Amino acid sequence: MRYLILLCLLASFNVFSETSLWRVSKGKSELFIGGTIHLLSANDYPLPVEFEQAYKMSDQIVFETDLAAMARPEVQQQLLQRVMYKKGQSLKNAISKQTYQALAEHSASVGLDMKALDQFKPPMVILTLVMAELQRLGMTESGVDDYFNQKAIADAKSLGALESLQVQ
User: Fold this and answer.
1) Which pLDDT belongs to residue 4?
2) Are 134 and 12 spatial neighbours (Cβ–Cβ below 8 Å)?
């Protein structure tokens, strides 16, 4: 059985090849592993032909987590509850005054509302800053993971996940 695993990384790195796709095999078993990013620019499409070839050869597509479930409103609400402070708490009270001031200045310079950020825990603030920067760089298209998730659903391919929604 052949599998394509798309690991969603927030950074890409050069690994002496044209793509971030690797093939691992033993006997008749093959595994394709693709390093991906959640957002791409329009210039990144079409994807390298190796990704399409690996997809066609794969019976099952495995993602970091269940992408369809991640899009459900109730899951989004649960995620928000985990990354937001409870009433009476805030980012301002969780980090140093210097760090908060630097964050406020940077946020203003990139058009982010510090009042909105103040309700989020540090990991969500970092993710928000990263996403804003990626969008500023023109990375507004769906990434490799979403592209192949939609394709696999349309092709009725078996889907899998490396992490549960709770771990994610």
Assistant:
1) 52
2) no
In angstroms, rounded to a whole number, what is the distance separating the alpha carbons of residues 28 and 136? 45
Query: In the 8-state DSSP scheme, what is residue 111?
Result: T
The torsion of the CA quartet 68, 69, 70, 76, rounded to 10 degrees, works out to 130
Half-sphere exposure of 50 (CA within 13 A, CB side): 11
Backbone phi, psi, residue 85, to 5°:
-75, 150
CA-to-CA distance for 89 and 113, rounded, in angstroms? 18
Dihedral of alpha carbons 25, 33, 161, 164, sign:
positive
pTM over 0.90: no
Q: For 18-45, write each residue's pLDDT tens digit.
A: 678 899 999 988 999 988 877 888 888 8
